[in-house]
Amino acid sequence: MKKRLGLILMMILALVLSACGSNAQTGQESESNRGGSGEKGKLDVFSWWTGAGEEDGLKALLALFKEKYPDIPIENAAVAGGAGTNAKAVLASRMQGNDPPATFQVHGGSELNDSWVAADKMEPLNDLYEQEGWNDKFPKELIELVSKDGNMYSVPVNIHRANVLWYNKKVFDENGIAVPTTFDEFFEAADALKKKGITPLALGDKEPWAATHLLETVLLGELGADDYKKLWTGELAFDDPKVEKAAETFKKMLTYVNEDHSSRNWQDASQLVGNGEAAMNVMGDWAKGYFTNDLKLAVNEDFGYAPTPGTEGTFGVITDTFGLPKGLSNSGDVKKFLGVLGSVEGQDAFNPLKGSIPARIDADVSKYDQYGKDTMEDFKSATLVPSLAHGSAAPEGFVTKVHQAVNIFVTQGDVEQFLSTLQSAGTELK
Ligand code: GAL
């Protein structure tokens, strides 16, 4: 039921986004865009970071802002639901109703540029970048993700990695399981675990994006970085035999997941790994925040991490960014918030708790645990690829269709139908 609600909200979002897009084309919204909570002077920070594993970093950032600007009231306006399942639809209706939050969470890449920027809803932040000296403090790949036509439209607070395989160390050690690096090794390990009565792979796709997240790591592992990227530019067809092989692998992986996957969210699935009921899960590194902050587990003692099968040397990039909607009267205050968010101090308050690494290249490495340190090193040397499930690789309308197709595939397992649905959805990609 909740899952259906999630899908419905995503469809509403896609509709509202396309409405915003057509407004931009006709140039109708500039006058009516005035207004929003910012006009009332409220500094409401909109995100989906509520609850376990999500909110600690945000709270630390808001506390830092309060310390620096005690006279500017700030409000946490987060809407629950992993990966923005509900928040994105709420945001879309607020933007459409000319009631934008003062600033909001948006993934760098397509989610920012092909929707809000294309719809002319965002202020360029070039002056802020200049003022704060950020142009050489964020990696150029991140600056590209938040830029369109030479203007910067948001400020990255972090870099999350998508392609991480988390595993319970005790379960692996006690059962003599080696960390799998290929799909063959993964299935070998999964068979051994299954024989012992342990769920090999935890999944929580009550919110369908979690299954899309797993799929994208399988696509990356089977296709490699170049072909993976070609999928989102329309250069590689979804009915290509290589994609078919990936779909078969994905289907096989789904035979090793917990039976109740469709009633769990990502935290519930990670919990199975944390308490040893399941051996592994594939999730972005916000799972690390959940393991350490909420389950009080220790990195490399209770749980370990590795690139998902076949993805060593590649890094699925997710960057959470915040921008400035057009038409706010308190844009100066919003810029102050963005200034804190983009500062070394802000990033180092947020990221060690969130599980992500700082977006800045000059953050204080000593503030991060071994996972963070390893991930910072990997980011420097790996081939970077954009995440599909988290909005960087392709427009929201397409991502919504993929979530729907994946959702059906998880229950029905019809590879041919799945690929043909993706293929027809893919016609809208450049
Ligand atoms: C992602 C987001 C992460 C994390 C995750 C789970 O889309 O980038 O910061 O919040 O969803 O909700």
Question: How would you sum up this structure in a few lines?
Answer:
By secondary structure, this protein is α/β, with parallel strands linked by helices. It has helices at 2-26, 29-32, 55-68, 87-96, 110-117, 126-132, 140-145, 169-174, 183-195, 209-231, 241-254, 266-274, 286-294, 331-341, 344-354, 370-381, 396-412, 415-425; strands at residues 43-46, 74-76, 103-107, 147-148, 151-152, 154-156, 160-161, 164-168, 199-202, 278-282, 303-307, 314-318, 320-323, 383-386.
Please write out the topology:
Elements: H1 2-26, H2 29-32, E1 43-46, H3 55-68, E2 74-76, H4 87-96, E3 103-107, H5 110-117, H6 126-132, H7 140-145, E4 147-148, E5 151-152, E6 154-156, E7 160-161, E8 164-168, H8 169-174, H9 183-195, E9 199-202, H10 209-231, H11 241-254, H12 266-274, E10 278-282, H13 286-294, E11 303-307, E12 314-318, E13 320-323, H14 331-341, H15 344-354, H16 370-381, E14 383-386, H17 396-412, H18 415-425
Helix pairs in contact: 1-4, 1-17, 3-15, 10-11, 10-17, 11-18, 17-18
Beta-D-galactopyranose (GAL) binds next to loops.
Name a few traits of the molecule.
single chain; about 425 residues; alpha/beta; D-Maltodextrin-Binding Protein, domain 2; 2 domains; 5-stranded mixed sheet; 4-stranded mixed sheet; 14 strands; about 10% strand; disordered N terminus; binds beta-D-galactopyranose
What does this structure look like?
The longest helix has 25 residues, at 2-26. Strands 2-1-3-13-6 form a five-stranded mixed sheet, sandwiched between helices. Strands 9-10-8-11 form a four-stranded mixed sheet. Strands 7-12-14 form a three-stranded mixed sheet, with helices on both faces. It folds into two domains: 2-159 and 321-373, Periplasmic binding protein-like II (D-Maltodextrin-Binding Protein, domain 2, 3-Layer(aba) Sandwich), CATH 3.40.190; 161-316 and 391-429, 3-Layer(aba) Sandwich (D-Maltodextrin-Binding Protein, domain 2). 49% of the residues lie in helices and 12% in strands. It has 18 helices and 14 strands. By secondary structure, the chain is of the alpha/beta class. The model is unreliable at 1-9 and 11-39 (pLDDT under 50). α1 runs antiparallel to α17 and α3 packs antiparallel against α15 (344-354). It is globular and about 60 Å long. The protein has helices at 2-26, 29-32, 55-68, 87-96, 110-117, 126-132, 140-145, 169-174, 183-195, 209-231, 241-254, 266-274, 286-294, 331-341, 344-354, 370-381, 396-412, 415-425; strands spanning 43-46, 74-76, 103-107, 147-148, 151-152, 154-156, 160-161, 164-168, 199-202, 278-282, 303-307, 314-318, 320-323, 383-386. Beta-D-galactopyranose binds at residues 48-49, 54, 82-84, 160, 284, 286, 318, 320, 390.
